[in-house]
Amino acid sequence: MTLTDPLEIWKIIAPHYVSIIDQAPHNALYERPAMRSLIGRPQGLNVLDIGCGSGYYLEYLLQSGAASVTGVDGNEYMIDACARRTNNAARLFTADLRQQLPFLQNNQFDLAVASLVLHYLEDWTGLLKELHRVIRPKGNLVISTGHPLSDFAESTSGNYFELELIREEWSSFGVTMPGYRRPFGSLINDFCDAGFRLTRVLEPVPLPEMADVKPKSFEKLNKKPGFICLRFEKVS
Ligand SMILES: C[S@@+](CC[C@H](N)C(=O)[O-])C[C@H]1O[C@@H](n2cnc3c(N)ncnc32)[C@H](O)[C@@H]1O
Questions:
Q1: What average pLDDT does the segment 128-134 reach?
Q2: Which three-class secondary structure string do you get for 11-74?
Q3: What's the gap in Å between 82 CA and the centre of ligand 1?
Q4: Could you tell me if the CB of 10 is within 6 A of ligand 1?
């Protein structure tokens, strides 16, 4: 049976994901350093983490002086892991990001983070509207997602310009993970249409330490992007 709902697959793999993800080179030595650099100094900020997973960013933000952290994820195992990891210092909600988020108030957050989650949504316009609603004017949104160039390598349609369901083999998890690929133009313009202004684009390369632990990936990611990280400001 092929599962097409990413949340169903996250139910299967959540325990394994939580146990290994902090050591996974693509996260620890590639995506997370890039996201931390775009997040900047979170001291005193009220921060929302959308698709908070095992809670790495919640813990990092708390340890970096955020005034408050709130996490939302559709997987209960992840939310329990976040509660343990933050010693219950985070406000946590189990919710499907394809639905509205009525438990979050208007203009409540200075910063929202969405790390490696948005590509699980076929239609993200509703979530972008919700993020715009809950981020205060001039607040920021920092995201990471698949780079449109590398995602296109997974295309079966061969049509770069279409929104496309792509499937990636996650062999260490024993699953095929579905996700959505978008052309670069709509990736950016959907945020602009929701009332955000792009302020930074980061096409990261891995930390030098990755050369020792995963030399092939290190070489590849220094020549071809895997993820893209973006920072937006709420403007209207
Ligand atoms: C790759 S993990 C990223 C976790 C975390 N942001 C990090 O970088 O460590 C993706 C997360 O998105 C969540 N997710 C995927 N689709 C979702 C949806 N429709 N609603 C809520 N959460 C979702 C999964 O449960 C999972 O925790």
A1: 98
A2: HHHHHHHHHHHHHCHHHHHHHHHHHHHHHCCCCCCEEEEECCCCCHHHHHHHHCCCCEEEEEEC
A3: 12
A4: yes
Q: Which residue's CA lies nearest to atom 1 of ligand 1?
A: 116
Kind plus residue range of the DSSP H or E element containing 103: none
> How many whole angstroms from its chain centre is CA 221?
19
Distance CA 76, CA 53 (A): 10
Query: 6-44+60-145+194-234, what's its fold?
Result: Rossmann fold (3.40.50)
Class of residue 36 by CB neighbours under 10 A (exposed 0-12, middle 13-18, buried 19+): middle
**Residues 6+ away with beta carbon under 8 Å from 109:** 45, 46, 47, 48, 70, 134, 135, 136, 139
User: Taking residues 123-139, what's their average pLDDT?
Assistant: 98
Ligand 1: atom nearest CA of 121 is 19
pLDDT at residue 2 greater than cutoff 70: no
Give the distance between the most distant pair of CA atoms in the chain.
Answer: 47
Tell me if 56 CB under 6 Å of ligand 1.
Answer: yes
What is the residue-averaged pLDDT of the chain? 97
Ligand 1: which residue has its CA nearest to atom 5? 53
Q: Which atom of ligand 1 is nearest to the CA of 97?
A: 20
Residue pLDDT, tens place only, 43-92: 999 999 999 999 999 999 999 999 999 999 999 999 999 999 999 999 99
pTM of the model: 0.97
